[in-house]
Amino acid sequence: MADHKSAVEGEKHLVAAALHIVRALGAHKNLEDDCRKLLVDLDIKLSAMTLTSEENKGGGGLTDIENWMNSVEMKVNSWVLDKTFVLNCSLDEASEYFELVEQVLGLADNLASFPFNDDWKKKELLHQAHTVLHFAMVKLEEEFSHILVKNRQFLETEKGNMSVCLCRDYDQECTLAYIRNRRVALAEVLFRLDMERMSIDELVKMDWPRLDPMIKKWIQSLKTSVRLYLASEKQLCDQVFEEFESAKLKCFIEISKSSMWQVLDFVEAICTGSAEPEKLFRILDMYEVLTDLIPNIDALFSGEPRCLFQMEYREAINRLGCCVKRTFLKFESAVRWEPSTNPFAQGGIHHLTRYVMNYIKIVLEYEDTLNLILKEDDMTVVCPNMIPIREQDEDTSDNVQPLAQQLRIVISSLEYNLHLKANLYTDISLNHLFLMNNIHYMVQKIKDSDLRIIFGDPWLKRQIGKFQLQAREYKRATWGSVLDLLRSEPGGGARPVSKKILRERFRSFILAFEEVYKIQTGWLIPDLQLRDEVQISVSGLVIQVYRSFLERHYNQLDVGGYFGKRIKYSTDDLANHLLELFEGSSKSLH
Questions:
Q1: Residue 207 pLDDT > 50, yes or no?
Q2: Closest residue by Cα to residue 104 from 180, 47, 157
Q3: Residue 16 phi/psi, 5° resolution?
Q4: What average pLDDT does the segment 509-533 reach?
């Protein structure tokens, strides 16, 4: 029995000696952080062993721990009552505070693990430990919040010791304070970037003149917020919670949650709105910037498998792609069915033709993006009621890029509409001139730009043939009947024609020519080169027939005599007058 008692006493003295050595070593200022933490853990375990030993003896061995707990409580209370911030003190003082809190936490854990057996002293000691921990953590949370508020502006992190020392699972208070303050700071930054939050309904109801500049600002702000501010927030979280892997991404997700939903809601609003053609380029801008930022988003949320934001972000890009398809098809439909009730004045280039050609030139700036979007599936899947229009001789081989196919459809739709508009003219000659002008304009816009690569030379040759055909049809419709007055010979040329008939026919030709001149000087061929070509072509045809008529009937018409002196126009006069056609200003020869 005496031997057992002696052994117990020996264990007690051994534990006490070890505890003394550990605390002495822990007070050494030159210890590494890992070593100091190890000693703190050992201190807690040795204290627990002392408590266990005293419990097994049935003695009152809680006295030393009570005294130590009272001492710690006094120190913590002095810190709590003092207005000086722990985190602003020297490293040694701050370390002492955190070590005390760590020790109290360990003691509380050990006390809670032992049966109390109705020992009110143990219960009171555990309650005291929890009270000390509560006030200690309140102090730290207030200080942490103060630092975050004080530095609420954009925090550009630097390499160095930025981590926060937390006490095992008591990091909840710290993370909540951190999240609360950094979320406010990020919201303030986004507000300054003109990314204030608006509901989907508000955005959908907004008219385009107001929404268009907002999207432009949103795109620039998004790039800045993701690449700079969110990236810095992530870096800050990683450094502040360096030793707490679970807290890093959790904090960042909670901080960035509002801004990410704001981005996704904005995309949803744009996709929900009407698919008007003028919106296409802004939607493409959004699609491209969101696609470009995929690596940044993946880097921000890389620690979370199948992160909700990563999946929603990609889904937002897919929705924008569908919106692009729907908008492009709406553009094709609008081109085909744009209504007209009155013929276009002077037969010039219709505003629809100019609009479409300018539009598709801008479309070409998004060639790679549109080829990617348009090839993902058949366009009719997006809008099944819209049937693509193709010419019979159109190249539909697999070598043609999706954008080229769609642009050819657009041009086919435009030509279809132009023929409808041409039919509004009562003068068939103006019908052909109008089509000639507009098809030529399309050809020139394509030939003189990178669109030529998209459409290809075979397509261009077909289009050139079309406007040349309209030019020939114009000459036939206008000058065929006029020149027939000089070409055809009464009686088929079998017998001489009387002077009276010849002179009557000649006068009829002059009257018809003057009428054409009066009308067609008011018509317009805007392209100067095309105008010259048509004028020269018409002049050559008319002058040849006119000169031939005068030469054939020189004697009968008495060209060299009295009647010849009364001939109103020489061949040179006619040639000069013909060069005045299509200038858009009606003139008269009377």
A1: yes
A2: 47
A3: -65, -40
A4: 95
